Structure formats: C-alpha cells, structure tokens
Amino acid sequence: MSKLVAVVGQGYVGLPLSMAAVGAGFDVVGVDVDQWRVARLAAADSFIEDISSAALRTALDTGRYRVTTSWSEADGADVFVITVPTPLREGAPDLTYVEDSGRAVAGLLRPGATVVLESTTYPGTTDQVLLPILEEGSGLRAGADFHLGYSPERIDPSNPSWGLANTPKIVSGIDDESLTRVRTFYDAFVERTVPVSSTRTAELAKLLENTFRHVNIALVNEIATVTPQLGVDIWEAIEAADSKPFGFMRFTPGPGVGGHCLPIDPSYLLWQVRQTSRSDLRIVSAANEINDHMPDYVVRRVQAGLNQRRLAVNGARVLVLGLAYKKNVGDIRESPALTVTQQLLALGAEVRAVEPHTEPELLPAGVDVVDLDEEVLRWSDVVVLLTDHDDLDYDLVSRTAGYVFDTRHRCGGENVEQL
After folding, report:
1. Torsion of CA 52, 54, 57, 61, to 10 degrees
2. Exposed, middle or buried: residue 247 (CB in 10 Å: 0-12, 13-18, 19+)?
3. Identified catalytic residue from 104, 113, 116, 261
4. Burial (CB count <10 Å: 0-12, 13-18, 19+), residue 256
C-alpha cells in the first residue's frame, strides 16, 4: 500500500509537487481553500503553465491524486507538505496561512508522520512557529512522535531547463531522524537532495538565493537609469561584460521585480535582522528602494518620450505589452507592469493591454485586453513593452508602431527607445 501524501496548497509550488509525488507512486491529496481552484483541478483544467491539463488528467485517472477543500480527506497522511503563501503586510511577515495550515495539520497528525514546510520564510519559523502549533494541536512531541523539516521551494515557472526533478533540493530536519525522513521523501522524485544541518540554515539559504538576485537586479536597474546621460547602451555593456568566463553573472534591467519571491523574500530577511539585532542590511534596503521605484522611472521616461513628440500623457493612447511579472507565465502577483499601468491610468492615459497568459478577469479595471495586431499598433501613441512573452511578434511591433518604449530589449529600430 503506497503512502499518503497531503500537499497543502495547490498553486505554483504545490501542484507540481503533487504531480511529481503521484509520478513516484504516492497517493496524493491536494488540499486548497480556494474552491474555484479546486473545481478547475478536479476537472483536469490546469491554470499553471508547467503542468498541462493532459498531465493533470493522467494523474487524476490513476486514482492516486484527488484535490479537495476538505481537510478530513488528509486525515492520517504519512507526509504533510505545506506550500502556502507567506505575504508581507505593512513590511512585516504574515504567517497566517502557515499558522492556519499548521493547526489543521495538527488535528490530523498520527505518530510516525512527517511534516515539511516549503513556504518561504525567515529563519526560525519551522522550529519556533510551526513546531509549537503542531505539538499543541496534536498532543504529540516533535522528534519523538512525529518528524518535522523544512525544504524551500525552488520553482521557476516556465523555465525550460530546470524543473522540480532536476533542480537540487535543499532538505533539513529538526533532528537527524527528521532529516532522514524528509530526504527519503524527496529522493523518490528529485534527482539530488542537499542536506543541511538545521531548518534555520535551509530557511536562510532560500532567502539568500533570492536576495542575491534582488540585489544584482537592483544594480543593473540603477545603472540603467544613468546610462542615457552617459551616452552608453546598457544592454551592449552587459553583453560585453557577459563575455567574461569568470567573475561575472548576467542580470538585466527591467521595470522592477515581481512575483511571489523577489519583492518579498529579501524583506523577510531584512525584517528579522531588524527585529533580532537592531541593525540593518543596508544593501537590501537600497535594493528594495531601487527596484520599488523602477515603475516610477519607466512612467517618467514614457512621459518624456511623449512630450518629445508633442503629446501629453493625459489622453494618450497607450498599448502595454505584458502584465505578468515574468515572461511566459500568467502570474501577475506583485508585477511591476501593473504598477506602471495603474500610474498611466491615473495620469489620464487610455490604456489597452496585450496579455495572452493571464485570464482577463484577473487584470486591473480600466484596461481593455486586446490582441496584438497592426490595427491596435497603429492606434497607439506609444507601445510600452513591460513583459516580453516569447509568443508576441516583436518584428511586427518594431516595424508598425510609431513609438515603442522597450524595457526588455526585444524590439529594434529608430522608433524604439530602450530602457
């Protein structure tokens, strides 16, 4: 009889994990509080780019995957994996979803079970927050009666090279036996696990990965704001620097950062440092400020470009290309493209958007969603490229639009202004 795995949360992290566990032979129950999401998944209708509806149907047809809003169906699971969001509220971590999930799991725990937290959070969450909730609600002792660990998610949506199976997986536990149980579970469907000495180390490793990206994106973003005055093409400079085979890693500028990681994870680390040591991470604070203000910079550049063409932004016809936080996905969480669009609307622009990956009802009010064609390009006073989905025709944009402001370096021509 195969082990029962309960995956709490069926989003960008939980659903791929569920599919991988089914593929490895586990019985999987996916628990999610979102009834709309559960209904879609139960009908084999995937809303995640990396999991096709056909793959979802295959998993459902095995009889070893079911999705539900009912916690009772996870009763007595051998493994619980918590993959719920950990947002920021007024600059502080909001662990409500983790805490609520922990209380629900506690009521279902049986001796010998394993609980793994995958949600991104600050060091100490697993042993200081989740552990007491599980013990209090179950009457069991962590380590002695059940096992507890942390394994940070490393999902990169729409990455064609690296997925759940071949991306090394950091694993940890509150004690040696917990680490062994956690590692054994992931070894069933991940090519390589990377054990570390404590859950706090694993929690910090996740924050370090994304803070590294955040800081380096801020570096190129800030340089991009001064290169027009220097008379230098930032994109050509990056390309030249990238020819060095050591000591340089390529990062490119853009309208800001978005998604469930970069705008949030560094602030988790910053918050905890301020709470525990009364000190600061100045480089993280600076990166936050730079990346947070990139949408403002983009809007100012668009205003200046329109002004040079004797047009005011008030009443201007603006076509926005892409509203998701990164290319080839539909996720609009924390997307800087939304901030740019909302600012343009507030300034009186008439905005239309091309966003083939996100369902229209999820997009901001006041924006008409359109297809990319010659008619809408000729309609626009300016085309603002914010998210460079690969399925958009950039040659058509370059040769048809009268004025393009390109934040992603995908278009070319005299009518194109690069970030």
Report:
1. -130
2. exposed
3. 261
4. buried
| Closest residue by Cα to residue 150 from 186, 185, 180, 174 | 174
- Where do the DSSP E strands lie in 169-303? 169-173, 193-195
Q: Angle, nearest 10°, between helix axes 336-346 and 294-308?
A: 50
Q: What is the pLDDT along the chain (419 residues), one digit of tens a residue?
A: 469 999 999 999 999 999 999 999 999 999 999 999 999 999 999 998 889 999 999 999 999 999 999 999 999 999 999 999 998 887 788 999 999 999 999 999 999 999 999 999 999 999 999 999 999 999 999 999 999 999 999 988 888 899 999 999 999 999 999 999 999 999 999 999 999 999 999 999 999 999 999 999 999 999 999 999 999 999 999 999 999 999 999 999 999 998 777 778 788 888 888 888 878 889 999 999 999 999 999 999 999 999 999 999 999 999 999 999 999 998 898 899 999 999 999 999 999 999 999 888 788 788 889 999 999 999 999 999 999 999 999 999 999 999 999 999 999 999 999 99
The DSSP element (H or E) to which 376 belongs, if any, is: helix 374-379
Neighbours of 208 (CB within 10 A): 12
Determine the longest span between alpha carbons in the chain, in angstroms: 73
| Tokens encoding 146 | 């059940």
Residue 411 designated active-site: no
> Which of helix, strand or coil describes residue 372?
coil
How far is residue 163's CA from residue 399's CA, in Å, rounded to a whole number?
36
| Cα(262)–Cα(281) distance, integer angstroms | 16
DSSP 163-185: -TTTS-EEEEESSHHHHHHHHHH
Between β-strands 169-173 and 147-150, what pairing exists: parallel, antiparallel or unpaired? antiparallel
CB 97 within 8 A of CB 116: no
Phi, psi of 17 (to 5 degrees): -65, -45
Decide the pairing of beta strands 88-89 and 79-82.
unpaired
CA 60 from chain center: how many Å?
Answer: 26
